[in-house]
């Protein structure tokens, strides 16, 4: 019984750990370099960079590196008007194609807001420079700032532990269906609308496993209770003498 519950606990903990969110970095405290791991490392191959608090003057630059390529996808932009604050992403080998944004993105539906192509930058060299220039004055605390996802990707062919995007890039299979645009074209989230036969089989197997575990647990508990009751009856049974005095 104890072994069975240990197995169930391990499976549950693995599921919880796998469902954990991406690591979040803040522009003012992230340091000078953020190093992404390869697509084989699961969720460690991606992260989120956001503005923490920019009430004070910030003219900040940091570098993001990856073993192969990087996809950066801006999800939130709510900065002060008239481009008082500017976020710029660019590849050192190709600065002319920098993605420079300011002000705020108008409200859109979730899909349009996350997957709009003009908010995505590919760094084929595996190095991405991020700068955030903030002019002093005004009330920046009343704005939400920025947030973008950056992910380590590589070109096809993809391995069994990777997901193939519609743009022929490979990302970790653990990054799909988490609400972030890791591929750059949104295909890692659009595919979540389709329930594949493999996922259906996996769900059924999981449910069957839990049912079997519950039945086995109940059976073992009931059996032990019966054994305990039998032992108690034998121990406390009064010992009558073989013969009674006349």
UniProtKB/TrEMBL annotation:
Key words of the record: Disulfide bond, Lipoprotein, Membrane, Receptor, Signal, Transmembrane, Transmembrane helix
Signal peptide bounds: 1-19
Bilayer-crossing regions: 200-222
Disulfide bonds: 158-170, 165-183, 177-192
SUPFAM superfamilies (UniProt xref): LDL receptor-like module
Cited PROSITE patterns: LDLRA_2 (PS50068)
Coiled-coil segments on the chain, per record: none
Domain of life: Eukaryota
Classification via InterPro entries: LDL_receptor-like_sf (IPR036055), LDrepeatLR_classA_rpt (IPR002172), LRAD2/Mig-13-like (IPR042333)
Protein name: Low-density lipoprotein receptor-related protein 10
Organism: Stegodyphus mimosarum
